[in-house]
TrEMBL record:
It comes from the Eukaryota. GO terms for molecular function: hydrolase activity. It comes from Callosobruchus maculatus (Southern cowpea weevil). This is Glycoside hydrolase family protein 5. Residues 1-23 form the signal peptide. The lineage of its organism: Eukaryota, Metazoa, Ecdysozoa, Arthropoda, Hexapoda. Keywords: Hydrolase, Signal. Gene3D superfamilies: Glycosidases (3.20.20.80).
Amino acid sequence: MSTIKMKVVLAFLVIFGVHSIDAFLSVRNTSFYYGNDKVFLSGANLAWIYFGSDFGSGGYAKVRSAYESAIDDISSHGGNAMRVWLHADGRYSPKWDQDGFATGEDTQSLIEDLGLMLDYAASKNVFIVLTLWTLEGTPKPMMHLYYQEDRLQAYLDRVLKPLVAGLKDKKALAAWDLVNEPMGSLSQTHKDPNPCYDTTHLKDTGAGWANETIEYEKILKLINWHADAIKSVDPKALVTSADNGEFTTTTVCEKCRDHYTDECLIGAGGRAKGTIDFYALHSYTWEGRYQPTSPFKHNFDFYNSKKPYLMEEFSTTNSESHSPSWNYHHIYEGGFGGILSWQYNQWGKWVDSKESMFEGMASIRNLTSNGKIDIKL
């Protein structure tokens, strides 16, 4: 190749192929990056249309237009991210046999359905955070995975690993969020000599509202095994596990303890790759006031974290300011990694109207000082 042609090719790559080598969301220090660009995730949750049954075995055909409409709205109002729940409590997917083993019979349909959503999201420059399970309620269909290692491993081998392999080249897949709000299923009185598993510091915090508790060690083990399985298939994948508030994810108050450190997770499950890459926080007011340690009261530096923080759930309806613009600006200008409003389908309590979340996204769409929002996937 001549020198002139080489220069032309290099110029083309610089201008048009900035993301060609590292074309997936990544973490560097305490920030998110896409290629060479620092990015900020701005958007909303669309956790479900039909709880736990939107994907696999023909489910997505019934809701595809609703998901694509949400992606369109987020994109057109200046957002770049949406969070979606997959299995939830395991009532619809994955498919189980009579002994509680995942059969894998619906895995290919899950790959196909999620692939359709992710491809459409990429066409609109919207990242997807994919949440697997939830503990904020009472997840009976999948509860055995916390207690039976052979059933857990069967799920990882027959469902999760093939799912990761089938989706790992999708640019819109931002991260795997493993368990939603474990705090809902934690006892406030469980004593353990290992501080990673002891929950006595949660007394009077509201923990355990799901009314069926699980020992923290079992939750951390499940997270560790999931994260390790994902990273063994796709080493570049980002993994998190979301929790409610700062009591289990930070060390900034007397009742606060970070249970999701590398040491806690590996100690619980024993698998070296089974750690999280960033923290996903949920913050709501109680009786009109945030906890004194809420991210809506502080900047990111307050937490002395070595990993990014994504404000994964909040609602302006349930905030102190009641201003979408103020909330989105505060998280952006405070140095956090992103903000997602709860939730687009307006189901349940403490939800924002679409107009509210659109106002918040639009108010920061052109900012760049804490990362780009206007990105090209």
